[in-house]
Amino acid sequence: MVFLKRRHVLAGLGAGLLLSGRIRALHAANPRNLDEKPRFDTSPFQLGVASGDPSPDGFVIWTRLAPRPLSLDAGMTHNRPMLVNWEIAEDEHLSHIVRKGQALAHPELAHSVHVEVTGLKPDRPYWYRFHIAGYDSMVGRGHTFPLPGASPARVRFAAAGCQHYEEGYYTAWRNIANEPIDFVFHYGDYIYEGGDRKDGMHKLNGRPFRALRRHIGPECYSLDEYRRRYAQYKTDQDLQAAHAAAPWIVTLDDHEVDNNWAGDSDQDGTPPGIFRLRREVAMLAYYEHMPLRLTSLPDGSHMQVYRNLRYGDLMNTFVLDTRQYRSDQVYGDQTAAQGADVWSPDRTMMGAEQERWLFDGLGRSDTKWNLLAHQVMMMNLAHRKSGHAELVYSMDQWSGYMYSRKRLLQFIEQHCPGNVVNVTGDAHRHFAGNLVYDASHPAPVSVEFLATSVSSGSDGLGDDDTFSRSVRRENPQLMATTDQRGYVICDVGRDVWHADLKVLDKVMERDGRLSTYASFAVERGKPGLQKA
């Protein structure tokens, strides 16, 4: 087992990435230890395919060779670089190939492949697949974005995340695979790092329930353990179908590393230098399994996650990172009253550099809409614990970082009022509401749609549990909430942004029934939700 081993980027890393300059030069040279005649006794494409981070002329296509994905070596007995063939076509039968090539699958990256395809036409679908040693991968569908100056009538995307493997089937992903969408935004918690519980028992709001599916192995600390955990999740056929159906725009949250980590701090008080070792291998495993560009390849314990993607003149997407640069949570990361610490200018959610990048991007943006795609709730929601008088707030959400929150809302109000929409997650419930400064300033500055979990939280408690009643009573800015599994569909037109909160009646059994819990609309130039 590789334990906390740092994996450096070796010569030849960019051979399959089709970039310019140094990377392109590396592409021309095969390593001396190349396995020129790889052999497999079963398909090495057990983890499916994916596309991501679209641009007007291309996107990333991804796969990973893993003939036996649940073993620590993934069945790759010949641990050498291998050439993987790829092809892009204009039709789903791949009869009209427009791009093809070879990419190196490096053992340093768990034999994953990230090809940055370029030279495609804007604003249209393409289909792709991989081939090696007589085996073809499944066919995936990508989609390029419109040119920056184009004026598309609409863009439609799904927002989802929090997919605890043990707590439910991925019925939401199967439904997303069948949605007519342009892309998926995954807000984080792609895996859960915890180990298998010997008795298989979990708890939801004090209620015990037995895990539907079991994690393989202990809590993840080593690179091999994180790799196997991603492989276990990616063997799910519904998740593979959603990846193959549309390009994904991804960001990570806490469980890709450790629950509620913040900057250099974990929840257990581990010395920062030691925790950074865990963060380093966790981020490398994340990169290896996501359709990300080379710019997101981790450098030690740091990974470039925040970035901007433009959809014509209709929407700018700002993908944020609210984990790597944030200050540690105050008050022991417990739900608590908002004391002076949450307002301290010395504490940050995004870090100074990312905040400057975001403010500069928002200030320059000339699109009809701006999407802030991030991890945790921005609404400042209060609730009362049973038998207690004081209002309490989450210290892991923006409500624990009120100085940063106020700065962002002030910038939105002053520089781009009425065209900023926040799409977030992590809370395992649907929430939809207006973003206001506080109770004494109730005018909406922006809006937020928080997508519930795909499976985390099991079947849930519905929309009339104690917590739901409390937050509705204490927060007039909250328009809807329910503790059910599902996802959010955003249908963005040039003047109106529609959002549907999709829910499933069950995930502990297959084929749960999908319905729309609530629908909302936002008019451009008029911040505030309207029921649709």
What attributes characterize this protein structure?
seven-stranded mixed β-sheet; disordered N terminus; globular; 532 residues; 28% strand; single chain; alpha+beta
Structural write-up:
By secondary structure, the protein is α+β, with helices and mostly antiparallel strands. It is built from 8 helices and 26 strands. The strands form 6 sheets. It has a 7-stranded mixed sheet with strand order 13-10-9-23-24-25-26, covered by helices on one side. A 7-stranded mixed sheet has the order 14-15-16-19-21-20-22. A hairpin with a 7-residue loop joins strand 3 and strand 4. The protein has helices at 21-28, 171-177, 223-234, 237-245, 272-289, 352-364, 402-415, 466-474; strands at 49-55, 58-64, 82-89, 97-105, 112-117, 125-132, 135-136, 140-143, 154-160, 183-186, 201-204, 207-210, 248-250, 307-311, 315-319, 369-373, 383-384, 391-392, 420-424, 430-435, 446-450, 478-482, 485-493, 496-504, 514-523, 526-531. The longest helix has 18 residues, at 272-289. It is globular. Helix 3 (223-234) packs parallel to helix 5 (272-289) and helix 6 packs parallel to helix 7 (402-415).
